[in-house]
Amino acid sequence: MTARGVFIGPIIDDIDTISSRVRARSKLGLTDLNRILEDFFKELLNLIHKANLVNLNEIRRNTPGIDLGDTTSATKSPFQVTSQTTSQKINKTLAAISDADVKLYDEFYVLIIGESQTKYKLNAAQVKRVGFKRRNIIGMTELASQIIASDIDTISAVYEKLRAELQRITVELEVAIDGKFATSLAGIVEDRPTVHRSDASLLFALDEGTGLFDSREEAQKALDGFIERLECLPA
To answer: For residues 197 and 50, which has the higher predicted lDDT (pLDDT)?
Structure first.
């Protein structure tokens, strides 16, 4: 297997895992995408396109029509990030883009966390106003194709990004069944070890020759203090 093949298989699997979680949420009407996904795809797109996208919702809440924007690269391209695949959603996005942003940016994209439709019925007037094309609708299959076509350094960086973020993202996107989640952060974070404390009898017995402690109770107090200080140390 080539070096590219080592990375590409897991990348496709990880993207599919994220898409599957989003798809499960969408079936329940949960089409909102929280900040973690916007920021994740911002960083992923920056790696793929060598871009400088920023989350516009951090600058002004719910920027109309776009979530991510890049005004510093040679080609200024913003993205709307959505889990909705319909023509209605695309048309609503195009209509929401302001005339000021049309002048500011070069080409607009809609990134669908899932699979794009084969055909779209787009509003001709909005398409012309924004300068939008069908190829500007990017589903996860198209995104994977862009990654595969990248150089090996980019593919490796995307692989590392997905490895670092996947578990946290899938936990964030998990849908509760009967009020319970199949996984939680408790499965990711290492449990704090249980401390079993003795009554310091052995410590006091070993100390008889030195006279450090006057009683077993005094030895136990010193031992408890030592354990409490150890508990404050990072695991």
So the answer is: 50
Domain ranges of the chain: 3-187, 201-231
Residue 115 or 205, more confident: 115
- Which residues have a Cβ under 8 Å from the Cβ of 76 and sit 6 or more positions away? 69, 70, 104, 105, 106, 107
Distance CA 106, CA 34 (A): 26
Model confidence at 41: pLDDT above 50: yes
Are 102 and 74 a contacting pair, CB within 8 Å? no
Residue 44: other Cβ atoms inside 10 A: 20
Residue 215 or 9, more confident = 9
Q: Which of helix, strand or coil describes residue 179?
A: coil
Helices (H), the chain: 3-27, 35-49, 87-96, 99-104, 124-130, 140-148, 152-173, 201-206, 216-231
**pLDDT, tens only, 150-170:** 999 999 999 999 999 888 888
List 82's β-bridge partners, or say none: 112
CATH level 3 topology of 3-187: Restriction Endonuclease (3.40.91)
pLDDT at 28 over 80: no
Report the distance separating Cα 49 and Cα 115, nearest Å. Answer: 20
**137-138 and 109-112 as β-strands: parallel, antiparallel, unpaired?**
parallel
Instruction: Compute the average pLDDT of residues 106-129.
Output: 95
Burial of 40 (0-12, 13-18, 19+ CB in 10 A): buried
Q: 3-27 and 152-173 helices cross at what angle (nearest 10)?
A: 30
Spatial separation of the C-alpha atoms in residues 89 and 224, rounded to whole Å? 62
